[in-house]
Amino acid sequence: MPGAATGTVVVTDPLNFWGGKRVKPREEKNAEPVFEPSTGKYSPIKPGSLVIQGVIIYSRSMERARVMLEAARIIRERREKIAKLEVINNGKSITEALVDVDIAWQCIEYYAGLAGTLAGQHVQLPGGAFAYTRREALGVCAGIGAWNYPFQIAAWKSAPALACGNAMVFKPSPMTPVTAVILAEIYKEAGVPDGLFCVVQGGAETGSLLCHHPMVAKVSFTGSVPTGKKVMEMSAKGVKQVTLELGGKSPLLIFKDCELENAVKGALMANFLTQGQVCCNGTRVYVQREIMPQFLEEVVKRTKAIPLGDPLLEDTRMGALISKPQLEKVLGYVSQAKKEGARVLCGGEPYVPSDPKLKGGYFMSPCVLDNCRDDMTCVKEEIFGPVMSVLPFDTEEEAIKRANNTTFGLASGVFTRDISRAHRVAENLEAGTCFINNYNISPVEVPFGGYKNSGFGRENGQVTIEYYSQLKTVVVEMGDVESLF
Ligand SMILES: NC(=O)C1=CN([C@@H]2O[C@H](COP(=O)(O)OP(=O)(O)OC[C@H]3O[C@@H](n4cnc5c(N)ncnc54)[C@H](O)[C@@H]3O)[C@@H](O)[C@H]2O)C=CC1
Ligand SMILES: C[N+](C)(C)CCCC(=O)O
């Protein structure tokens, strides 16, 4: 589906997916407008009410693997169509949306591969007795998603959930309700039994119903820290397992011995994907003082050259922010930074594309801030927009200390040619991921998740199986019972 944003996409099919088909909400209340970020046009979406009627455990692991592989194949086949819908609903560039869709099918393919490997352990005990463990499903898992990676988040949560034999009820963000339902349709088409993957639309009220529902065994959440805390609190009432993928203010350390061009490219990758609305972004860029002038010159040159505009055009690299309030919030951070003494080297302003269709869109020019200090608001808080703060440092020890001086701990990065330094820095940074000489790549084979207030539990990688299953220990006696009574 080539072509430019039209602002005329109307969603007519119901967006809840229940029992194997799209269904209208049982109660039509609290309809919320959904805006197309690049044009500012909107259409109303109606959330649904929620009833979880039964648990289906999909017990045959090889069958699970087969249908998941088929789902991955269908996604691959329809990647352009899914990516286009994602762009219209989210505002990110088509180039990025295609990568997101590819990561989604890779994730489903990866967990399809793991489904057949789930196994317990056999343990010999004295006297011929033995025990074994069984890896069992949890039951119904709830997934609550954010708006920055709508399709990918639905895949990151549903793939390990289904691979382990669980059912999942997924609630996308009310701002991006469209593509999770496409995933549900694809799972059905691939052979996933009805009711195993459901989508329910809604906001905080629906999310809170899921966290409180007695039949929900686990909640996996992606979003902001304050909402994550609420999710944990609500889930605690039912002693539900929780995975929290929360915000960040990740540090990127650039040493004078780095390959400068790669470091600059890395800094852009760390800050400007999805218009800067990425939880693991490396928004505190610490640059060793000796190379600061060259770094700034190059980073500003490349930032100014980012093609900004219609997200559906192939050459565009940055689209629109998710909403008007988000745009205003981010611009507010830039003016606050100026008040606190930062210098705007480029961008940080609303941007109006020349195409008249896009004049109501939520665009801003990507921003580089210099003269930053660790105590500034722009350096301490998650901005969730295209704003990079650059800070000078002198020594490795100092940089690590300042990098760790945050309540967040999602990701981090280091650019250096000194391999000992690279691994030393990776060891000392308090974050769930450390990228060495790159940033924001997401191979599905490796775990992703936070330290400190950025959350706990992991997505992707083998370890995530542990977060979507439970172990049963079976102890077998071969002799007589030696009773103490
Ligand atoms: N770090 C990250 O990955 C993300 C960070 N954010 C940050 O959070 C700010 C607010 O964005 P929101 O979309 O409102 O994030 P949010 O964290 O409030 O929403 C995330 C998800 O949680 C749901 N939700 C909201 N309140 C809930 C509740 N009480 N119980 C259960 N579920 C609930 C939402 O409907 C959505 O599906 C953004 O401006 C951004 O700074 C937003 C999205 C992702
Ligand atoms: C894909 N990646 C690594 C750029 C971001 C994924 C995490 C998120 O949901 O923000």
UniProtKB/TrEMBL annotation:
The active site is at E245. Transmembrane segments: none annotated. It holds the Pfam family Aldedh. Gene3D superfamilies: Aldehyde Dehydrogenase, Chain A, domain 1, Aldehyde Dehydrogenase, Chain A, domain 2. Residues 62-474 form the Aldehyde dehydrogenase domain. Keywords: Oxidoreductase. One of its GO terms (molecular function) is oxidoreductase activity, acting on the aldehyde or oxo group of donors, NAD or NADP as acceptor. InterPro entries: Ald_DH/histidinol_DH, Ald_DH_C, Ald_DH_CS_CYS, Ald_DH_CS_GLU, Ald_DH_N, Aldehyde_DH_dom. It comes from the Eukaryota. Belongs to the aldehyde dehydrogenase family. This is Aldehyde dehydrogenase 9 family, member A1a, tandem duplicate 1. It comes from Labrus bergylta (ballan wrasse).
